[in-house]
Amino acid sequence: MEYRYLGNSGFKISEITYGNWVTAASQVENERAIASVHAALDAGISTFDTADVYANTGAETVLGEALKGTRRQSIEIFTKVFGPTGPKGHNDVGLSRKHILESIDGSLQRLGTDYVDLYQAHRFDHFTPLEETMQAFADLVRQGKVLYVGVSEWTADQLRQGAALAKQLGFQLISNQPEYSALWRVIEGEVVPASEELGISQVVWSPIAQGVLTGKYKPGQPHPEGSRATDEKGGANFIKRWLQDDVLQRVQDLKPVADELDLSLAQLAVAWVLQNDNVATAIIGASRPEQVTENAKAAGVVIPAELMARIDEVLGDAIERDTSITATRSPQQREA
């Protein structure tokens, strides 16, 4: 495993992060989810990402159970706040001071720890003054419950505003967690340049495009039984945009590139996002421990420039680059 600094800080994390978004307390039974966390530790992964909203707090509980007995100082635990949790009442959502301060205590209890290494604003809150949000984060840093602060799916302008307020309050934003893959590049035009300017790294999710870049979905063929595309609990909704024969054929056409590097298609996809210097880590999920073991091998891989260019050529107009999409990721109205 290789390690990188997160933003303009002295904090190092593993190039591969284990995430348990839809794979703990949701699609995957707890025993297999815990085994996947242990496989991550065995592979040298030290960084673990979750959120209180995942499985309505259930994912944090599973992760906390899985990490019991692991030396706390040797791992990095990330979680997030924003989404509706608990009974989803009128104050159980957003980035108000009330919700942030109550949410961190719940997360710490479920995770079985006194602090989280990185606490992230899961989305931008259009209905709470940004000053209120950043002051709450500053207070948590001073209390020692949070070591570092990050955000997720913020636009370039939102990052600039948040970073300026953080600096005034005596801390810094060091990360942003966006979707990013060889097929989904909406952050490259504005978010990445702003982040480089501000000393913010990307902690990217869905580097294998919800599994499409693994090549397991074949054009003109039924989706594999038990795959995310057949999951009616919600997984199918996230992946359906990629399930077009043209896109699936382009992914199959990447196989010679992967073979040239002695990688699987999944490993190629994870290694691809890590070629971006502004990316500190790629979050991988898994429904089976062996998936973690295999995908962790993408760490440290260098893809030559000519092969990066060939990937661009193969994927062609299947690549999404529209920078305006990031602004649509944060709710424009309260969910509760």
TrEMBL record:
The keyword Iron belongs to this UniProt entry's keyword annotation: no
Organism: Amnibacterium setariae
Cellular component annotations (GO), alphabetically ordered: cytosol
Matching InterPro entries: K_chnl_volt-dep_bsu_KCNAB-rel (IPR005399), NAD(P)_OxRdtase_dom_sf (IPR036812), NADP_OxRdtase_dom (IPR023210)
Pfam annotation, one family: Aldo_ket_red
Keyword annotations from UniProtKB, A to Z: NADP, Oxidoreductase
GO molecular function per UniProt: oxidoreductase activity
Taxonomic placement: Bacteria, Bacillati, Actinomycetota, Actinomycetes, Micrococcales
Protein name per Swiss-Prot or TrEMBL: Aldo/keto reductase
The NADP-dependent oxidoreductase domain, residue ranges: 16-314
PANTHER family documented for this protein: HYPERKINETIC, ISOFORM M (PTHR43150:SF2)
Family that this chain belongs to: Belongs to the shaker potassium channel beta subunit family.
Origin: domain of life: Bacteria
